[in-house]
Amino acid sequence: MKAWIAFWNILLKDMKNYYLKPPNISWGIIFSISWTLMFFLRSNTTIDIRGILPGIMAMSVLFGTTSMLAVTITFERKSRSFERLLLAPINLNLLMMAKTTGAIIFGVLNAFVPVVFALFWVQLSGVDWIIVILSVLLLAVTSTFLGLFIAVSVSEVFEAQTFSNFFRFPMLFLCGLFIPVSQLPVLFRPISYIIPLTYGVDILKDAINREGHIHPAISFLVLIAFGLLLFSFSIRNVKRKWII
Length: 244
Fold this sequence. Notes:
Blueprint: H1 3-19, H2 22-42, H3 46-78, H4 81-87, H5 92-118, H6 129-151, H7 157-174, H8 189-192, H9 196-209, H10 216-241
């Protein structure tokens, strides 16, 4: 079997079975719309909307990717359909890439929902869109691999959701999204710098508002390193737990 045919068919199956289902669209897209409007309608000045836009985009990516992937992998593992994929003549790395690509696409689309709404309120002139697209893509990849790491570490869907929240909510408050990292208590600042979301949010702040405090090249390298590390740990766990 040609690798690209296997990759495409696994991706297509996941898109039809999971990502394009009405409940997932409502949870993923409409959820992003809801909290985008919640934040934007609360703001009365244009500077507020541009200021909070990077954070809302990062939140949309984080929740969209981790929720979807953690549930889909765990569900397939529970129904034993994932075992059939493991028996297919396809490289394990390629198989896991095919399983995660749908979540990455879903995360990238989620990230631009707040941007569409922001255009109704403010001018987004001066935004470095190339950096925005690259950072959203890398953030989606890293968040998806975090979801993969969670999915291969548990056996039940409810465990995946609980484990996801164990990572997600502390990250929201420590990544500089609500409070700049420089204003966090000294005790928490080192923790902020071991969270991938901190680097994704900082790149977006720099590209949209020129407010980043980490050089974008460093943030890109750190996100790539986090992605490779999480993917490697996930593959190791799959081989150790699911392949005898």
